[in-house]
Amino acid sequence: MTKKPKAKTVLVLHGPNLNLLGTREPEIYGRETLATIDRRLHATAKAAGVKLESFQTNHEGAIIDRVQQAKGDGVGFILLNPAAFTYSSIGLRDALTAVQIPFIEVHLSNIHAREPWRAHSHFTAVAIGSILGLGSRGYDLALDYAIARLKAR
Ligand code: DQA
Asked: Is beta strand 51-56 parallel, antiparallel or unpaired with respect to 9-14?
């Protein structure tokens, strides 16, 4: 019997409006573009011998489809910034629990230190953990964890 290869791909999912990073409220979200962040994550993953895919969309159905597809694609870990879907998308949360791929929730800003309605996330309770308020460094820290976890399996 051939053994199934272990999933060694990290999928980074960026929700709505994160394509505007760099120019979008830089005092809150910083001046780095999404392309810069993704490039750095790709380089870190490559150096660690792990495959990384990143995907940004402004469309709820598209991000749900991407999560459903992830299982068959050999994704072993997800880094998710749900952005505004944090507050609205039960569909995305259900997709994540359906595929049972562990994930870290990342937010550039500290959602607890902003408008009160930003504080409650639909994802926190089903994530492995959350990283908030550390700017784009949050993605790097989450990726370090994902790499260590995938390598430990
Ligand atoms: C965000 C925080 C959310 O409240 C907001 O809707 C975003 C970005 C962050 O990364 O800080 O779009 O997820």
From this structure: parallel
Q: Is-contact 114 86, C-beta < 8 A?
A: no
Please tell me if the CB atom of residue 81 comes closer than 6 angstroms to any atom of ligand 1: yes
Is residue 87 annotated as a catalytic residue, yes or no?
no
Stated pTM of the model: 0.95
Type of residue numbered 95: A
> With bands split at pLDDT 50, 70 and 90, how would you rate the model's confidence at 7?
confident
Q: Is 37 in the pocket of ligand 1 (CB under 6 A)?
A: no
Which helix (H) or strand (E) segment is 81 a member of?
Answer: strand 75-81
- As a whole number of angstroms, the distance between CA 122 and CA 80 comes to 12
Alpha helices (runs of H) in 8-136, residue ranges in sequence order:
26-29, 34-47, 60-72, 90-99
- Of all protein residues, whose CA lies closest to atom 12 belonging to ligand 1? 83
